[in-house]
Design goal:
Elements: H1 2-15, H2 24-48, H3 59-83, H4 107-123, H5 126-147
Helix pairs in contact: 3-4, 4-5
């Protein structure tokens, strides 16, 4: 979980090229949502979730971790493709090619949705499932807009 947060919060912003500025209100809402979600996930896992001693070998946990890792790899690779669509100074819309973009038009969104459902499966908490569903609805609607 912290690996993804480090990538998304620290590494990814340093890699993206300048584009349209993010409205301040959108930034504040995103920050508050991420802060609350991080608190909710951390509190849930550290204070309330109870796992049997063999949980790390359970097929549910293993499948969830594999889904999370595969989703993260898809997300990072898709972000790389998107960052390199245009040369510096070039504008205009370009259709991404390669990786999962050969199968879905919003490969970056698909990767992130897969990550959070993998996380939810590995954790088996209502909080992690809630965030996975939230991610599906938010990114699913963005993916639909991008596809159109």
């Amino acid at each position: 979980f912290s690996l993804l947060v480090c990538y998304r919060a620290l590494i990814f912003p340093l890699l993206i090229r300048a584009g349209k500025p993010t409205p301040f209100f959108t930034f504040v809402l995103a920050f508050l949502f991420c802060a609350y979600n991080g608190y909710l996930q951390g509190r849930s896992l550290s204070n309330y979730a109870k796992y049997p001693s063999g949980w790390l070998r359970d097929p549910c946990f293993i499948t969830g971790i594999l889904g999370w890792l595969i989703g993260m790899a898809i997300n990072i690779h898709s972000d790389h493709i998107l960052r390199n669509l245009r040369k510096p100074g070039e504008t205009g819309y370009k259709i991404p090619r390669g990786g999962m973009f050969e199968y879905v038009s919003g490969a970056n969104f698909f990767g992130e949705i897969l990550e959070w459902f993998g996380f939810a499966l590995a954790c088996c908490t209502i909080e992690s499932l809630s965030f996975a569903l939230c991610t599906l609805f938010i990114l699913g609607s963005r993916a639909k807009q991008h596809h159109q």
